[in-house]
Amino acid sequence: MTTLPFYTAVTDDFEAVNQLIMRQLHSRVPLVEKIGSYIISAGGKRLRPLVVLLGARACGLTDERPHTLAAIIEFMHTSTLLHDDVVDTSDLRRGRSTANALWGNAASVLVGDFLYSRSFELMVELNDMRIMRVLAGATNVIAEGEVLQLSKIRDASTDEATYMEVIRSKTAMLFEASTHTAALLADAPAEQTEALRRYGDALGIAFQLIDDLLDYNGDAEAMGKNVGDDLAEGKPTLPLIYTMREGTPEQASLVRKAIQKGGTDDIAVIREAVENSGALEYTANLARQHADEAISLLQTLPPSVYRDALEQLARFAVDRQF
Questions:
Q1: In a designed cystine with 167, which of 1, 80, 208, 244 is the match (CB 3.0 to 4.6 A)?
Q2: Domain containing 15 — which CATH number?
Q3: pLDDT digit string (tens) for 27-69?
């Protein structure tokens, strides 16, 4: 994963963050370390700590504090993954069994809590109330987004505005908090801080839109999860919402019933309906608009390899197949 070009600008920083994360997983309870190490070692793209490093360096910060902030963000993200897999009853993530599938729901929830509390211990080490305020607020917004999404499960009346509120809260918020706090840590000028905050929001939205698109035309092996997972859980994502709104009466009815029922019995015909309705193209275009917005916001930063990497990352968010 780290061979992708936008990682190379912060290769050494990234390795330092990985080492810090593994050190901070220590616990006097062996099961905490075992589950924590398992979920962290699954890897993934680690885009949120990446944008912390790139954002801080792009703003001219040269010390090691971004390593701590990046570890904080990764712990926050990993804790939400542990909780999400329990809520979604998922058994596969990043091509491996989920922690809840291996150790049960109770242990997964509690280790998720441990990672959250460890992230706040690290925040105290940074001793920056501005960063504490942003990350504490982000934690609330993410939790609200998850509950809003939960309340819309199998609700075929969910509209695009509600869907956007969900993804802005549950996904984009942590990207936004990552770039926002990176700029704060660097004491960047107000204009750069606001631009990086908005960059994170736009990047996160683009990323989630493509994730939801790939649920219908992606490759399960490349993604490390099952195609059709969202439909199986009854999640009304944008490809489905668009198909119900703009598709033929037959397509709309088919999707509506599938959301209400859940499961993947009709995944083949649903994928066909979503594709034929133009929903995938609509979702991809919306993702590109947000990626373009993210790139335009970077013009407030001075030219550097870090700014270039942030631009490459925004392009990757919409061009990827996994």
A1: 208
A2: 1.10.600.10
A3: 999 999 999 889 888 767 899 999 999 999 999 999 999 999 9
